[in-house]
Amino acid sequence: MLRIMQDANARRLRMWIVLPVLLLALALGACSNGSVLSTNSDDGPGVNTVPWDYRIQEGSVGDLIGSDMTVLPDNELLANDNNYATGQQIWTLQAMSATLTTDDQGRNDVQLSGWTTLKSYPDEASANTDLENLKVSLTTDVDVVGVYKTALNGETRNFAVLELPSGNRMKQPIDEARYGKLKDAKEVAVVLEEVHDFADYDLAYAKFRGWAN
Prior knowledge:
Elements: H1 8-11, E1 36-38, E2 46-65, E3 68-72, E4 76-79, E5 89-102, E6 108-112, E7 116-121, H2 124-134, E8 135-152, E9 155-163, E10 169-174, H3 176-182, E11 187-196, E12 204-211
Antiparallel strand pairs: 1-10, 2-3, 2-5, 3-4, 5-6, 5-7, 8-9, 8-11, 9-10, 11-12
């Protein structure tokens, strides 16, 4: 079950998972910023499953089947822990995970799961309270590893490489103005989103969500 930790702010920077992989940039509807993360490639091949995203869905109770219920509109079967009645409006928390597989040549494959319903709520406010603790936004300073330029067909692109507190390295496209700000910088303030595991709150995965300034 979800554990909301009172000392979460002090412990957050110790919760990130160190991933021995190179993550290719992912363009998802929920992600406004793509990123590339990497750690020590000498760690070799392996498989990691991390919490990736959560969402709240509105629905209603369908058929009651013993101690379970179907949730409309998808007729998904879920435990009726709150003794809902047929036709009652409810909200559900859904989760998505990512399986990261690295081969012996350091190439990485990312597979996203489908949405899985975890829990039901009688009101939207209760559902959002859990969501806010599972997806935590924070601002922190990270190390600037360096910046560089690439040129192709007469077009130039700028990139910054940052190191998160976990040791993960992230490559992010930047414009010319930010290139100038970062080329001599040692640290920069960024916004991160920690996605915590529903069953084990200490298991978390950090995503880059933008520049703090």
